Amino acid sequence: MEIDAAATLSNDQLRLERARQVLRTEAKALLAVSEKIGGSFLKAADALLACPGNVIVTGMGKSGHVAQKIAATLCSTGTVAFFLHPAEAIHGDLGRVTQNDTVLALSDSGETDEVKQILTPLRESGAVLIGITGRSGSTLARMSDITLCYGPVSEACSLGLAPTTSSTVMMAVGDALSIVLMSDRAFGDEDFGRFHPGGSLGRQLRSVGEMMRDGEQLRVAPADRTIREVFVETCRPGRRTGAVMLTDPGGKLVGLCTDSDLVRQIEQRNSLDRPISEIMTKQPTMLRREQRVRDAIAILKDRHFSEIPVVDDEGRPIGMIDITDVMDLLPTPMAA
What we know:
Blueprint: H1 11-36, H2 39-50, E1 55-59, H3 62-76, E2 81-84, H4 86-89, E3 102-106, H5 113-125, E4 128-133, H6 139-143, E5 146-149, H7 165-184, H8 189-195, H9 199-204, H10 208-211, E6 220-222, H11 227-233, E7 243-247, E8 253-258, H12 259-267, E9 281-282, E10 287-288, H13 293-303, E11 307-311, E12 317-322, H14 332-335
Parallel strand pairs: 1-2, 1-3, 3-4, 4-5, 6-7, 10-11
Antiparallel strand pairs: 7-8, 8-9, 11-12
């Protein structure tokens, strides 16, 4: 008697296997589509790059949600784009589209009623129409100036009905266009930072000068003083850095001494009347104010530092990046 393999699996194992099958199905489709893109993809990218107006992305249902995501990705990577809802378009929003625009229309079947209703008006507007669809013989494919056809795909839904693989493929094609355009435009760190000022990503792309502690929060002292003199003179209430920056007679940074260094001297009952130059970290790692915060984070992570001094072009201390100010940007294990 043959035993059904599925019957021997626990319910949790079955659920996990279903989940894995979804991922395998979608991954297989993405790999297949990656081998299909060619001349039409380049034509579409060229049309988007040359667009003198705006990129309009449209789609209905799940394709509409994907279209919104593609529009957002295009915007954040250097291509001005807007989402146009097909149902709203046929009630007046077609007025947003001009002959200078390029339209990306999404429909897996290429026969979505709401999308079909706006195809003729879009062509009459003079806008370039790029269709993204799974069917090369569909209405959308026939009426588009450029068609990106990814071909038939197997939906990962157990019924083969819910848009899963098809929506994943459409989103991936949109990502591919966005990133190619990003490269074509030489869209770099400065541009990305300008478009992403908020959240942890935005903070990492800010300059060190924007986030460093400065002014009265800094503790700076001559390197020829004793340990006791330095820590007495730089002691102050309120928010301050966890290290003293030590300078030569010309004001250039030559060393760093942390509160932890002082604690170790006290625990070891060492004399505090010795020159602080004997215990300071000589020629410490330094940052410039124009560097990115992410550069500072990489140093804090890789070298297990708690503070990094910031100097000007002459090597004089002007600020300090303190680990407590960027704790939420650090990798979880280190932040913990």
